[in-house]
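@channel sequence for tomorrow's demo:
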Amino acid sequence: MKTSLFFKSAAVLLTALALGVFLFARVAVDAQSSAPSYDLLITNARIVDGSGNPWFRSDIGITGGKIAKIGFLNGKTATRTIDAAGKLPEGQSLDGPAGLKRVLLEKKNEFVRCLVEKMMTYALGRGPERSDKCTINDVAARMEKDGYRFSDLILGIVGSDAFQMRRGKDRGADVAPLKQASQEALQPAPQQARASTVER
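structure tokens (generated this afternoon):
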């Protein structure tokens, strides 16, 4: 009777031990499968292999700061994922520099207006205010009218009241010469001067 109780206890103990080992192994496998495959996964990348062959699209898996795999890594996980497809917020896709150029030409007026705002922010040392809206519109319109010349952007900002009247600790007392020079630069050249440069 004591032997049968010993065997029963041993059987229960072995069953519990086997169940514990099974559950521990299962948890270890689940933890291993849920761990990310890569530190960084770059999807839809343009790969140039340096062999002279044309570029191709693929994914890049990076682990420990080194490229671990290049290929289609669908279903793989990573700590951080970057989609290199190049899409704008409205869903329009970019395909390299040519695609960016195409989008900028399609949205030329929006780009020029944004450029004027950013350049004014830099020139004034502050963000654009409501009072700057007319200046921004005028400079953007002047650029559109004259073929989007960069000089129109610079002269328009330098000649603006917002730039001329800005305050700062290093500001000189007399800005009249600068304002006069920028106003003269904004004036169209006389027809006679243009004709003489064309004849040469």
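heads up for whoever presents: Residues 25 and 98 are 53 Å apart (CA to CA).
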